[in-house]
Design a protein that fits this description.
Elements: H1 2-23, E1 36-37, H2 40-67, E2 73-77, H3 78-95, H4 105-129, H5 147-173, E3 175-177, H6 199-226, E4 232-236, H7 237-260, H8 265-288, E5 303-304, E6 308-309, H9 313-330, E7 333-335
Helix pairs in contact: 2-3, 2-6, 3-4, 4-5, 6-7, 7-8, 7-9, 8-9
C-alpha cells in the first residue's frame, strides 16, 4: 500500500511538472478567434504599392529594349498609385464572385476576370495618358500607343491578369491580422513558423515600398521644380534590391535592439541613419562601376562623391522612424489556410492550388 501510494504521488508530481510545458509552449495568440481579416486600409495600401511595382517593372523593361542601358529606370505616378488601390479593391470584389461559377472555374479565371481586368487597365491607361507630360512611355494600355504596342500590351496584361486571379488574390486571402487589442509576445521568442510571414516576404514588401518612396519623392520634386502636375516619378529596378536589403537589415536591428536590449527609438535612430547612408554609398559605388547608378548629388551641397548628401538627412530620419511602424505591422500578419483554396506550406509560402484551374 505504502509503496503504491508513493508511486502514485511520484506519478502525479511528474505529470504536474510536464503539463505546463505541454499546455503553454508560448503565449502567442495563435487561436483562430484572435485573427481577423486584413483591414481595408492595409489592403488598399498594399494594392497601391503592388501596382506601382508593376508600373516600374513594365516601363523599365520597355526602356531596356529602347535605350539598352543598365540604369533600368521605371516610371509611375501618384495618380496611378491611387488608381491601383481603388482598382484592385474592386477586383477583390470580383474575385469573390468566382464561387458562383460552380464547376466551371476555368471560365472565370481564364475569360471573365482577365476581360474585366484588361478593360479596367485600358481605362486607367487612357485617362492617365491625358495628363502624362513625360517623354517616357506610358506604363499601361493607352490609345496613344501604336497598334503593335497595344497588341503586346494586351498579351502582357492578360498574363498579369492570370497572375492576379491564380496567385495574387489567393495569397492575399490567406493573410490575416492580429488586432492591436491582442498582446503578442516578443518576436525573438518561439512562434509558429506555419503562421508567421517568412523573411523573403518581408524583403519583397520593403523592396516594393522603396519603389513607392522614390516615385512619390521624385513626383513631388518634379512638381516643385518643373511644375509637373502629372505627378509622375521615377525609380530604378536596382532600388528594389537596395531598399529591400537595407530595410530588411534595419528590421533585424530593430528586433535585436528593441526586444533584445530594450533600446528606445531615439537611441536606435542614429544607428538606422548610419546604416541607410552606408547602404546608399555602397550601392552607389557598386552600380557606378557598371554605369547603372541612377542618382547623382554632385550639384547638391554637403555631398560625398555625388552618392550621398546631408541634405537628405531629414528624409532618412523620417523613413527610419516609419520603418519601425512597418515592421510592427508586418509582425502582426499571419498566414492561414482559412478563406482560401490554396494551402500555405510549412514556411508560410503561398501555393497555387490545382483547384483554381
Amino acid at each position: 500500500m505504502g509503496s503504491s501510494r508513493q508511486r502514485g504521488t511520484a506519478c502525479v508530481r511528474s505529470r504536474a511538472a510536464v503539463m505546463p510545458l505541454q499546455t503553454h509552449p508560448h503565449r502567442e495568440p495563435q487561436s483562430t478567434g484572435a485573427l481577423q481579416e486584413l483591414p481595408r486600409w492595409m489592403r488598399i495600401y498594399f494594392y497601391g504599392m503592388h501596382g506601382v511595382t508593376l508600373d516600374v517593372l513594365m516601363s523599365s523593361l520597355q526602356g531596356v529594349f529602347k535605350d539598352h542601358g543598365w540604369k533600368l529606370l521605371g516610371f509611375s505616378s501618384v495618380y496611378l498609385l491611387i488608381a491601383h488601390s481603388l482598382n484592385h479593391l474592386a477586383l477583390e470584389k470580383l474575385f469573390a464572385l468566382r464561387r458562383s461559377f460552380g464547376k466551371r472555374p476555368a471560365l472565370f479565371h481564364m475569360v471573365v476576370y482577365p476581360s474585366i481586368y484588361i478593360a479596367l487597365q485600358g481605362l486607367i491607361g487612357g485617362l492617365h495618358a491625358l495628363t502624362w507630360s513625360s517623354h517616357d512611355p506610358v506604363p499601361w494600355l493607352s490609345l496613344h500607343m501604336s497598334p503593335s504596342g497595344r497588341l503586346c500590351q494586351l498579351l502582357l496584361q492578360y498574363l498579369v491578369a492570370l497572375y492576379f486571379t491564380l496567385v495574387f488574390h489567393t495569397g492575399m486571402s490567406q493573410l490575416q491580422y492580429v488586432p492591436s487589442s491582442v498582446q503578442t509576445v516578443s518576436p525573438l521568442q518561439h512562434q509558429d513558423p506555419q503562421r508567421c510571414l517568412p523573411g523573403f516576404l518581408h524583403f519583397l514588401f520593403f523592396g516594393m515600398h522603396g519603389f513607392v518612396d522614390e516615385v512619390v519623392f521624385t513626383s513631388v520634386f518634379n512638381l516643385m521644380e518643373k511644375a509637373d502636375h502629372s505627378l509622375s516619378g521615377h525609380t530604378s529596378l536596382w532600388s528594389f534590391l537596395m531598399y529591400g536589403s537595407c530595410s530588411f537589415a534595419v528590421e533585424k536591428l530593430y528586433l535585436h535592439l528593441h526586444f533584445g536590449r530594450g533600446w528606445g527609438t531615439l537611441k536606435r535612430l542614429p544607428l538606422y541613419v548610419c546604416v541607410a547612408y552606408t547602404w546608399e554609398l555602397s550601392w552607389g559605388l557598386l552600380l557606378r562601376q557598371f554605369g547603372a547608378c541612377s542618382w547623382d548629388y554632385s550639384h547638391y551641397p554637403l555631398h560625398f562623391m555625388g552618392l550621398v548628401t546631408a541634405l537628405y538627412l531629414p528624409g532618412w530620419v523620417c523613413l527610419s522612424l516609419y520603418q519601425d511602424v512597418l515592421t510592427t505591422v508586418l509582425l502582426r500578419i499571419r498566414c492561414t489556410q482559412q478563406g482560401s483554396e490554396g494551402p500555405c506550406d510549412t514556411n508560410g509560402l503561398v501555393q497555387v492550388s490545382k483547384k483554381l484551374i
